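Structure ticket #2291
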Amino acid sequence: MAVLGVAVMVVSLGVAAAASGGPPAPVEEWAPHELLVEYRAASSARDVRDGVGAAGARIERTLGTPWAPGRRLVLVESTEHSVSELMAIFADDPLVLRVSPNYRDRVCDTTPNDTSYGSQWGLPKIAAPAAWDTTTGSSDVVIADIDTGVDYNHPDLAANMWHNPNEIAANGVDDDGNGYVDDVYGIDSNAMNGDPFPKHSFADVGHGTHVAGICAAVGNNGSGIAGTMWTGRIMAIQTFSSDGAAYHDDEIAAIDYVIHEKTHDGVNVVAINASWGSYGSADPSVRAAIQAAGNAGIVFCAAAGNETKNNDSIPHYPSSYPLPCIIAVAASDASDALASFSCYGATSVDLAAPGTGILSTWPSDSYASWDGTSVATPFVTGSVGLCAAQHPAETANQRVARIVDNVDAVPALSGKCVSGGRLNLNKALGAVAPPADDEIPGVAIPASPVTDTVDSASDSDDVYSIDLNGGDLLEASIDGAAGSDFDLYLFPPDAASVAFPGSAVARARGTSYPDSFAYAARTTGIHYLDVYAGSGGGAYTLTYAVTPDTSRPTTKAWAPRTGVPRYGPATIRYRLIDTPGVGRVYAQLLVKKASTGRTVKKVEIGWKSVNVTLRQRLKCSMAKGRYHVYIAGTTRDLADNPWQIATAYGILVVK
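Resolution: structure written out below.
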């Protein structure tokens, strides 16, 4: 698994070519003239509005950023510029953290079979009947079905639909204040309203209803089919456009809604079903949203794709994001072979589940049989729900481990997926609980000192979450059993896994005890402290202390005063002020063409002392016209921690 590193701005739309002799790289798809732009936390609403306007674009939609509260994510649109031109323009804005095309994803299934097919062979194959002897589910467990919507009136689904407890149906009021009116069963994130009923006319419009039935159709009711969970709740989210594709802005809005309902309103959402995806559509904002869901305790079950490709070589997203909360699902047939259409990957796909000739619910009180990793995935999602009903206190990581570590080993799947096997629900349900602290997000750190055990052979990591403000000083020390070699690693808030210690921001890797480090936090948020057994095993004692930083500088910028003849020379005056004596300011000046947003001059002014008025002399060799002159200052404290970004701009007229 990879780790989210320092966020960088993506300015290339290309995809690396496939290795010689391998399959060709799939073509990327995105919405023309649209871009997802994520602004840094220090940006104001006016900064965003001015920056988008200067780029010759308009804000089409503002999205939440549950992975980093305070940041601003906007969908922008411009009829003047192509996607690549827009990316180049926004790449020059110092307030922009990252940009991405608004990719579109497709449902992961094939042509439906005859609708009279009535055998649910997949449920006995995954040992569901034996699992049902233990539990058939719980009405307290919620599965979020992000798809083409759900027919919530279907007789085999209606009793298992989630009902928003804080919303009054059909009163035309947003009773719970979550931004959606009458979101009783869920939302339509594409239309931005509270009705997730399937409403488009494309052939796959019943896809979400079909997925919902596999997850949790009402069981033992004398008609229709049984879901993997007989009892559960389906939160319906319609996220597809009328062209049959799901765009990343709609997917982010859907995931944000699910996280909000869990963290703000206490809805027990345990898993998201994502039976869709595409190639070449890696997007850091989508990845961050999925990671935020995992940190909220939600497992993300994703279809591996139907293109018969090795996802290790050509990643399929979102299933290929290397996040511990994701279960990537291939499709198997009735003889336990990999389905002929299914994608696979020894390191990128976790397991297989039944995915051929799967009968399930369809809109308008009907049923249909389908093939695809789309229909394999909800068997896994429903299994996560059943495990959550039986083991309600477990974390998302523990539920992932239950599913992936307790498959039926199948020779035909060896080397095709991480587990080398096919889902076995009964094994997963009855297995011994996996450790809760082996991986991010870990467990909340107890008061110091912390004592526990690790072992390099069987339980090598204990991961603790610790909340730090930027500038806080964390001092940590480890003492271990004789003959052991235990290390400490501190991972930043955007880390996805402790499997790659190179992404740690601080570490203690000495050869004797006690071993310690001191770290001044560069960002605010939940950090992850990993006690790692490099060799040996036994007890350890972790001591730590957090000293808050009280010297937090602020920055203010005044609009530059300009007005020069062509070819200058001109002096552009501006001022950056900081709390005196606390830190320093890094200044940057940009000159952009007002009509296009294109940068025509960029000056790195560099580090300056605080509380000073600065002047920059420019030779203006631009063509006649109107320009925007931006000044941006980034404050750092004495520990070199970034604190605040301030911007201002003025008008430059070349005559």
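Closing remark: The mean pLDDT is 82.
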